[in-house]
Amino acid sequence: MARVLLLLALLVPVAHAQRATVSGTVLDAATGEPLPGASVYLTGTTAGDATDSRGDYSFETAIQGDVIVTASMVGYSAQERSLRIRDGGTVEASFRLSPSTVALEDVTVQQTAEQRAADREWRNQLARFRFLFLGRTRVARETQIANPAVLTFSESNGRLFAQAESRLRTVSPRLGYNVLWDNLSLAGSEARRTWSGSNQFVVMSGTEDQERGWERAREAAYRGSFRHFMDALRTSSVEDSRFEVFPVDRPGLIPRFATALEGETIATSMEPRAGRIWLVMYHDERADRAGRIELQRNVDWAQMGSGRSQWSWVEIGPRGFVFGPDGRLENPLDHVLRGYWDYERAAELLPADYVPPRDLMPSG
Predict the structure, then answer these.
(1) Which of 4, 13, 52, 184 has a CB 3.0–4.6 Å from the CB of 62, allowing a cystine?
(2) Domain count, the chain
(3) Which residues pair with 79 in a beta bridge?
(4) C-alpha separations of 293 from 1, 288, 290, 301 in Å
């Protein structure tokens, strides 16, 4: 369950919003000198800029509302700033970065990274990290971790703890993104996990055929996702978007699907009350075989027909679903996601400024 990165996936650009400008300066915290070449970006999006010789940057975005801007540079600790962006406005965000305790250029650190890669236990932990963080979908299997040696691992009581000592880079040849992760950490097990960090999406350049393939893959990643469901819920187009919802009046742990489908606990109201669990079926895309196998721990597939549709469930947080004026879900961290929405993990994330095809955009 990605409780932190879910926030990044649910920022929603406004179709007709005026573009706002984010600008500022990045300086060395110790010397006060400008830091040219630093990366400054709106977390979870493709929007960003590199600082010039004076440490200045500027970029535009259609996203509005409460956001996080991150500044990152090799040899320095990444820093985040919380901002509120208004429609068509200008926001200033300056940073003073402190040198990192881990410098990638250091020979000793490089030797340590090489030693990690040669260590069998570390390689096994890396494989587990790939599953917990990226998942096992087709997109996840094709996603590459470009610099895994920056990761350190520890284990306790069956839980894996992972920390990236510096910026981690993942490459998705299927979706056409390089994703840069700052301050990334993960903790958890196969049953439940959390992670946190900032991420920047860098769009790949390719041939016309590659561009078309990436657009198809991004559309597939959006279909049936929690972001897709929230868009449909916000615009009262759940059925038109091919979702089916079974509200369950049972707080706490996840109930078995069989109980809900037998009608014993199906609620008559769709009010998103705190603690209520919504079972959600998406009919427009089949669940892949690996996803069906993984979900069998919690699902009685005999009660679900062929099990071809994608099943997910959300335990609704204390305030229900709170949408901002721009259509963005303001409290994504309040909710617990399981099922297919949990099976599709970080490898399936799309940037917040990704705009789905018009036929998939709910109207309302």
Answers:
(1) 13
(2) 3
(3) 71
(4) 18, 9, 5, 10
Find the length of the chain.
364
- Within this chain, do residues 41 and 128 fall inside the same structural domain, yes or no? no
Q: Are residue 93 and residue 43 in the same domain, yes or no?
A: yes
**In 3D, which of 330, 308, 309, 310 has the Cα closest to residue 320?**
330
Q: Pairing relation of β-strands 95-97 and 20-28?
A: parallel
* Residue 186 lies inside a defined structural domain of this protein: yes
Q: 44 burial class (0-12, 13-18, 19+ CB within 10 angstroms)? A: buried
Residues 181 and 153 in one domain: yes
Whether 49 and 121 share a structural domain: no
For residues 213 and 177, give the distance between their C-alpha atoms in angstroms, rounded to a whole number. 12
- Identify whether 360 is part of a domain: no
pLDDT tens-place string over residues 48-94: 999 999 999 999 998 888 889 999 999 999 999 999 988 778 999 99
- Tens digit of pLDDT for each residue in 169-187? 999 999 999 999 999 999 9
Judge if 56 and 159 occupy the same domain.
no
338 and 252 in a common domain? yes
Tokens 């919380």, located at residue? 82
What are the two backbone dihedrals, phi and then psi, of residue 314, each rounded to the nearest 5 degrees?
-130, 130
Long-range CB contacts (within 8 A, 24+) of 45-51: 45/11, 45/200, 45/201, 45/351, 45/352, 45/353, 46/200, 46/201, 46/202, 46/203, 46/351, 46/353, 47/22, 47/353, 48/200, 51/25, 51/26
Q: How many other C-beta atoms lie within 10 A of the C-beta of residue 301?
A: 15
The parent domain of residue 37 ranges over: 14-97
Which pair of structure tokens corresponds to residue 226?
């929690």
